Automatic annotation (TrEMBL):
Name of the featured protein: Sensor protein
SUPFAM superfamilies in alphabetical order: ATPase domain of HSP90 chaperone/DNA topoisomerase II/histidine kinase, Homodimeric domain of signal transducing histidine kinase
Organism listed in the record: Dyella japonica
Function, as annotated: Member of a two-component regulatory system.
InterPro entries linked to this entry: CusS-like_sensor (IPR048590), CztS_silS_copS (IPR006290), HAMP_dom (IPR003660), HATPase_C_sf (IPR036890), HATPase_dom (IPR003594), His_kinase_dom (IPR005467), HisK_dim/P_dom (IPR003661), HisK_dim/P_sf (IPR036097)
Amino acid sequence: MRSLSLSTRLTATFVVITAVCFILVGWLLYRAAEQRIYAQDETNLVLSARHLRRFVAELDSIADLKAHQDRMVVSVLGDPSNALRIVDASGQIIADHNPSGFPLEVQAAVPTGQRVLATMLSSWHDDRGLPIRGLSVMGQLRDGTHVTITVARSLADREALLRRYRRDMALRLLAGLIAAIVLSHLLVRRALRPLRSMATDAATIHAQSLHKRLTVGNAPAELHALSGALNDMLDRLEGGFARVWQFTVDLAHDLRTPIGNLRGTNEVALAHPRTSAEYQALLGSNIEECDRVSRTIESVLFLARADNPQFALQRTSLDVGTELERLAEYFEGLASEAGVNIQVQGRATVHADRDLFRRAVGNLLSNALRYTPTGDTITLRAEQTDAAVMIAVENPGDGIPAEHLEKLFDRFYRVDRSRNDSANSTGLGLSIVKSVMELHGGRVSAESQLQGMTRFTLWFPVRQAELH
Ligand SMILES: Nc1ncnc2c1ncn2[C@@H]1O[C@H](COP(=O)(O)OP(=O)(O)OP(=O)(O)O)[C@@H](O)[C@H]1O
Ligand SMILES: [Mg+2]
């Protein structure tokens, strides 16, 4: 089922809230009006009963009462909804006024001495079910005769009034709700306009148009934050795409060179008959080129695997001193060939993946070997602090100009391309070091002085290591 749009949800919420408020306020007003009307009628009935009792008390006899009955009716009850009946002790009707003709029930009469109160009123209904309120009181004439006075009021007109009031309120409520639906829909649509324009902008952004950004204009602050976050995400994606594109270009270039070399040397060799020594030399150089291609491919695969968030490290506790000694030994052959010494200093323990650790330090050492002048010494130094284990690979040499230091860890970056485009260089060694350090939650840094010392430092965070 398609979920409801935001504007429909907001409109519905607004309308429900408005309806609840309307109904609540309308109901309270209705109740207040109803109570006021009924309270007024009750007061009138009580006052009439009191007045009639006093009036009766001033009359001498039943005959006198009969003579004054018109005065009583006219002066006390001017409303056709009111009714009055006076009966004597034997139950004979002395005065009867009931223009509406509703049934009059004689109630248990309030005794002569007792004050008449609204709580003494009774209710009953006529044959149509319409309510009637009334009460009976005892009155005493001067000659001591008792009479029962009943006053009542039909509430039929009040019911009709309240019914009209309810119907008017319902119609106004309906009109109010229709207005609320229309207005809230328009307002919500207007408020969400910037969101729609963001969606339109976003729909035009593809891999080929990643430079485009979402425009915000005078949108509300919340949308500013959202579009800001989305634009930041586009910045990162654009950077990522640019790096992938650059990587592809560099990879193609790096594979084209050795394959071009292979093809060129083979073509030249095939142009004339060669001696077997020449063929041997050719095959030797072919193997070197093939090695370079396979090293590039192996490095690219490693970097791709390391980029995967699922990459699992096999961490163990490593004695850094021992590991550095082993690496120095491993590179001993190449070092003595180049007339370079390797020395190891310091001790530390690191929680890291053994193979990756060796690969990172090995890459730094192989670089150092390539750039250390004959007779000089490479230092592998380990240092342990509370926060991190640092492993530095230092070598004297020409050094690396400062403007290159930042980019050294980019894939395929070489300071001097012409010099390094040899069979030995893929330009991926330092990017592998960087990937290894990121996998360990650490980092790598480079410092270099021209005609001085070049130092690459690996930082393994201690706390991070303990957590894993
Ligand atoms: N110790 C160093 N002294 C001077 N320059 C260095 C040193 N280490 C690295 N570089 C420079 O950094 C560049 C990048 O090194 P990186 O290890 O990534 O690639 P590479 O050594 O050229 O190739 P590979 O590591 O695959 O053999 C090198 O080409 C070199 O110019
Ligand atoms: Mg290298």
